[in-house]
Amino acid sequence: MAAVIRTSGLTKNYGGTVGLTGLDLEVTAGTVFGCLGPNGAGKTTLLRLLVGLLHPSQGRAEVLGIDVAHDPDEVHRRVGYLPGDFRAYPDLTGEEYLRFLGDLRGGVDAATVEELAERLKLDLSRRIGALSHGNRQKVGIVQAFMHDPPVLILDEPTSGLDPLMQREFLELVRGARADDRTILLSSHILTEVEAVADVVGILRQGRMVTVDSVEDLKARALRRIDLTFGHEPPMAVLAATPGVRELRADGRRAHLVVVGSTADLVAALAPYRVEDLVSHDADLEEIFLAHYAEEG
Ligand SMILES: Nc1ncnc2c1ncn2[C@@H]1O[C@H](COP(=O)(O)OP(=O)(O)OP(=O)(O)O)[C@@H](O)[C@H]1O
Ligand SMILES: [Mg+2]
Ligand 1: which residue has its CA nearest to atom 13? Predict the structure, then answer.
């Protein structure tokens, strides 16, 4: 399959600070690529390089076969981009702003804009300056999707969205993928990336430390689980369950960490009376640790 996004040796230094180092990346058509990484890892730097808002210090980036540094305008026309710090003219209403942007892009179907706004429950008649943070973010999402671009590059798209709207956004992404569009998004939220991405890349200090399918990442993820039993926790059984680590009892409670699938744990618990089960999302740090542990 053809690579829609391709970088080779892509590097960005800000004076003495490393933004991104020697990145070789290929994202094929119809793929959702989720970019994870802690603050300052280089996610925004990568996304801005891909849309030509930054010039690489070394290496190159191609989108749809276009060299971004060579022809940024052509890339802009073909890509829907949501910046991490999306801002719009506060004095315009959502409708006015989106019409203005649409005209710049050579006309956008008003029905598409309306449908997007409706799905995201965004009131286009309000002044952007009067919108809440989450509602302003929705304007940013609509402008990225409204011209049906073949490529979407979205920097922390769900920042500020409530859980229902996050879910609606993920539906938008799934719809775009079903139409064979290519999506690269950055996020801090692993569950969100898991829910929608085919491939996940983890950036750390400007380097892509791992690129994996979501299944492979999940198989390595750690999850912290708290169990409350109606009786003493069956510690010997838990200790013998595959994938269980860091097991510790606390009265009728057991705290543990599961590596990968929880299927074995669930099966092992079947004969017991579990009154409560709390599962904490694997956080990025834990994913990193799992990654390094595997590398030995
Ligand atoms: N304009 C700039 N001038 C100098 N350094 C910069 C600039 N932009 C980014 N950096 C540095 O580049 C590195 C990567 O930053 P970047 O914004 O790409 O990270 P990020 O992964 O998007 O982080 P976050 O999760 O906080 O959004 C950081 O060390 C940052 O301080
Ligand atoms: Mg960022």
Answer: 19
